[in-house]
């Protein structure tokens, strides 16, 4: 498997942005082209004083850590392009410690470009962030702390999509997908995925109660750990099915489907079998959506249940799912952050997704809330797994106060036989159980300042008594707008990590200055 440069996701995302900017410039007059584009360069300087830089109570290392983070936020919307990008390069320097300087990247980018009107489009997503290698290893509450159990995970997904009509009878969608994932310092998370799907669906009409569809797909995932003998199996799945949907009422949609599939997720060789299932949705109001689906597979049944409800000041989401997960980052999918919850809540106030993105990020910064805060860290798996996950999340905004909270639990098991020569968390434990809770409260003191309090708890369990960790963390902070484009923050943090191998306690004071240009 070819080596992927560390900065590739950022460069590719920026390249997509330039392509979109060109499409935007051609879609109308220069004045019209500029109205949908926002580029905000930024620079963050953070000073952290900690009493345990290496997160080891047996060898405490009090130090001063400086993080310099230049970055850029970009949003673009035109009739034929939509792009959201947020990137920062974090350079960490250490004083009063022998720790060498480090760098890390943070990227979240999405792009949807219409290349040929009403026919061919390109969808892309790039993510770069920090990921725990082992669920049973050390977990930290800050990337500036030195943690050998943490690595930088980079992923890029590109999907060309063709959509059109077959006469006046049906619509079709032909999609190809290429995914590359790389984990710095470990081969367990290095995977490549290739897939294709075709869906043909009958045209819906106001008077039609029944609709039909046929769907065919194929997917192959290759791990770098599979190269050579005695490594991880490459996994592949393919299926073809037909389905029927019934709309008994304007609020209800019910359906069923059946077909066949082949896969090697549960066995060394490809096995064929029948697949079938049911699904449905209920939308009593534009603010409430309930969805459910169940599907039988030869390697284990899958299901998905979700309920979303939002009001002017509150958003609530409940979910329960069981699904097969390809090798790589496990437990990352489906987790809702503060950004996700508020993006859902403000859908009525700002329907436009690009403008809503800017509004939510400004709201988070003004209230001192972390945009990417999650309740569990997940881990990296070298083989295919089965993930069962339940989550409840909520957000509430008052005149001065903002409250977000979530609780989730998950169980991860290996799919198929254990591959020889590969070591990950599921090599020594049949299951990885994780529980996470998080809460954030922010209060606006004045028009330009706010105070916040955040708490989190996460617990991980395996089959053995030694496979048990837990972390409790609390963060109190104050932030203020010091100028039209300048924000200052002061945070106090206390963390306790329980483990039979490397427990620790850590206290820190963090002062941060953010300048937007």
TrEMBL record:
Q: From the UniProt annotation, give the residues forming the signal peptide.
A: 1-25
Keyword Signal part of the UniProt annotation: yes
Recorded hits in InterPro entries, A to Z, give: CHP03016_PEP-CTERM (IPR017467)
Q: Which UniProt keywords apply?
A: Signal
The record's listing under NCBIfam families reads: pepcterm_hypo_1
Return the protein name.
Answer: TIGR03016 family PEP-CTERM system-associated outer membrane protein
**Organism this protein belongs to:** Paucibacter sediminis
